[in-house]
Write the structure tokens for this entry.
Amino acid sequence: MQAKDLAEADWLVQWGTMALLEGFLPQMPPPLTLLEVVLVLFLLYLLSSTPGQGKDPPGPRPLPLLGNLLHLDLKQLHVCLCELSKKYGSVFTVHLGPKKVVVLAGYKTVKQALINYAKEFGDREISPIFTDALQGHGVTFANGNSWKVMRRFSLKNLRAFAMGKRGSEEKIIEESRHLAEVFGNFKGEPFDTTQPLKYSVSNILSAIMYGCRFDYADPAFHKMVERTKEAVRLSSSVEIMLYNLLPWLRWCCGRWLVKRTKMLKITENLVEGIKGLAQGQKDTLNSQDLRGFVDSFLVRQQEESDQPGSYFHNNNLNYTVGNLFAAGMDTTGTTLRWSLLLMAKYPHIQDQVQEELSRVIGDREPRVEDRRNLPYTDAVIHEIQRLCNILPLNFPHTTTCDVTFQGHFIKKGTMVVPLLTSVLWDEEEWETPHSFNPGHFLDEKGCFIKRDAFMPFSAGRRACVGESLARMELFLFFTLLLQRFHFTPPPGVSEDELDLTSTVGFTRSPSPHLLCAVSRT
């Protein structure tokens, strides 16, 4: 077929699909009419499918419009993709609806793509909902020069205000005390750890962004945290997933996309809150005494105020702060929830952690420098991150150019999923990949060992900008809580009955549960 014919065929497929849904969603057409339309679409699909340049990655044959959705469990998509990799190899194709996606599976393949082919696989795949909500601003769902400038600025200032200053350690320890007080107030009775952990992690981010913390009872703080949590939840809802796969649905049935509307409104409210806090920072700004990330951004904004095209504008300020806040709160807070649940699930491991803490640290508060003298505790934290696999699908990438990778041709602009589940649970890299085993990070002498396949923060150009901060938070929160409390299931529930099933969402979170924090003093 000629290029013109292919273009016309592609247009006909899109037109036919829209016509089908416009008729299907508001009112069901007669069965015969629907069958005729589906057959036409199928023929058009076959006409528009031609071999690419070179060998395309293999994969299951997609259906028109639906792709491979009928063969995938969207509630455990990462598990389905791992199973498909066993059949089709470490580089394969699936179709999520009409969207073609190349999946990279296994430690060696993911590392090769993200490190050795960092430029080719270096752009972010930005789904329609994030295009609508963020408009290309910020640092998480952005590409091009704006992203490069915001990422470089974020890394530098996170190091300055969080990673490289002893003051950050003090802030985390101080926040750990507040968290321990909240846990202690339950006096050993069952409670849900979700909210206090989210508040604590959010306060660390607030201290880095604005130079101050909020009281847990502050209504404005409550609202900010709850809106952020709700935005993250909505972004992974089935309705939003459908919209991301078929974005033109907004034109034919926009009034039914309630969650899209709700998410855009929540994002707008979050931005308004950030604007208010940033204005307060601006009104009291002292360029000689920067309190946090926002102050640093405002100073840079003033310095470049006469430069046309500067990326230090208010939209990038608002969305970058929002991106860092949402990502940090959700991932670190969720990992801490998993950590306490696993300690209650495996009391013998909790006992060993607490024995090491008592022997090495005693009654004083843990410090970051203690990590090297706590090999078992360090191994347990790493194993929690590995097994819990917070971002199983990673943040999807997209190819910046045509690329031939491991003998497969992948077109520019193709969505790519570096499957972190397949790395953290790689059967060739981990002795017992599906079991909680701190021994993965210990040698025969009980010394801590690094493992190359430990990649919870991804790798390469798009690796998590807050990795060092997250590692510090996880260590200090975890050790202080384990030092002060012993975590158990609620009365009447055995360790075996604690459910490790994850919930469906943007991150892999524990199912709702209650724990008891029993004081050790």
User: Anything to note?
Assistant: Residues 1-32, 43-52 have pLDDT under 50 and may be disordered. The radius of gyration is 25 Å.
